[in-house]
Amino acid sequence: MATNKATMIVDKDFIIGEVDKRVYGSFIEHLGRAVYGGIYEPDHPDADEQGFRPDVIELVKGLDVPIVRYPGGNFVSGYNWEDGVGPVAERPRRLELAWRTIEPNWIGFNEFMDWCKKANTEAMMAVNLGTRGPDEARNLIEYSNHPSGSYWSDLRIKHGYKDPHNIKTWCLGNEMDGPWQIGAKTAYEYGRIANETAKVMKWVDPTIELVACGSSHIGMPTFGEWESTVLDLTYDNVDYLSLHQYYGNAEQDTETFLARSLAMDSFINTVISTADYVKARKRSKKNINLSFDEWNVWFHSHESDKKLDPWQIAPPQLEDIYTHEDALVVGCMLISLLKRADRVKMACIAQLVNVIAPIMTANGGAAWKQTIYFPYMHASLFGRGNVLVPLLKSDKYDTKEFTDVPYIESVAVHNEEKEEVTIFAVNRHLGEAVPFEIDLRSFGDFSIIEHIVLESNDVKARNTIDAMDRVKPHTNGNAVIENGKIVSSLAKASWNVIRIKL
Ligand code: AHR
Q: What crossing angle do the helices spanning 225-234 and 187-204 adopt, rounded to 10°?
């Protein structure tokens, strides 16, 4: 049997687009132990003066997360933001219907903004378009962004926040097409309320950017038609359309699982086409860009979640413990996002702490990195600059669901300021290393800074509280320069980061 191999040519002038740093965003929802026990745990021995966990803040800083979506998710569609501001002792405990828990409102809008400052990130706020509408949204943005001299801005000042929060990015509801959503809507109903909400929010603060809800995932029966109708009704008042997608490997078919980013590629391309179709119908000059504001692997916790009793505060919901193969899928999904850097301007790995997250904590105990932490960290730290067109040739395989799956998935990012090129690559081959040759023909002289590899002999290996470092990257990758090309052999089932100094 012939050895599999792959080659890639990149040229510094063949640019797909500049990475918008917000593509490395994440998400904190009032769900499970994301907030209570995740970012906030006042009884933890190391908690700071506000009850935040410094170990979690350090791990978040290690990812250099530019933006965090908040407070949901499904949660936002039943949330009264006013419950979460003002004196904590006076805040109501509510039945939280999206996840059937008790929401104590110990953390709300202002505390989250304090946490963002500590974690060196910004907020992407979602407004409730499930049970509420334009009125509450305009009040929230007045509370958040208006300097002073009005009822809601003065209330913020009374609550101890003299300076406006100046949040720039806002989501108009969440997954409004989903029957599971509190206050789900038809595309027409949603498009109308989203447009009216967008109008009044921008009248309060014209500098904001707004995200309209796309379909909850590509399998929704109204996918396509939903995007078209919603954009038809909101086009001039919104800036982005959302996409959400999670993948799983319940059937234990790893070759198919690793190929699922091909479906993500086609999902992104289809939504771009739909947005541009509406643009054409409207003879508009404006592009609607994409906000892939929920993406990840999610399936490990489905069964255990069914066994949880309702109406608890912060039960361990959606606590997927990730494997090495999950990290490879996350790596492939990151490459998919980068390959459409021209149109995908924001994306949020869902979520950040404990809930389908790269960071896990034990209540009262340690915090650690899940396997998926590493590709996300590498992309965020090293994937800033211009994404280059990958002229990639790779041998391919077929699975039950996919044909022509390239063994090697790869993309390169050129950081002109730092004079660096970073190549991200996944070897999907489960049994063999694959030779990979990269031709950086237009770049002149260069040297290899490092070749980082995340590999494991066991694709099911996980990091757990008693073995936090079972899966972690090393820098002993074998990339070298030969005849002006980068030559390497990518280990079987591996995530690779080849960093080049120009
Ligand atoms: O991220 C978990 C949930 O997934 C979110 O609340 C919802 O928007 C999506 O269905």
A: 30
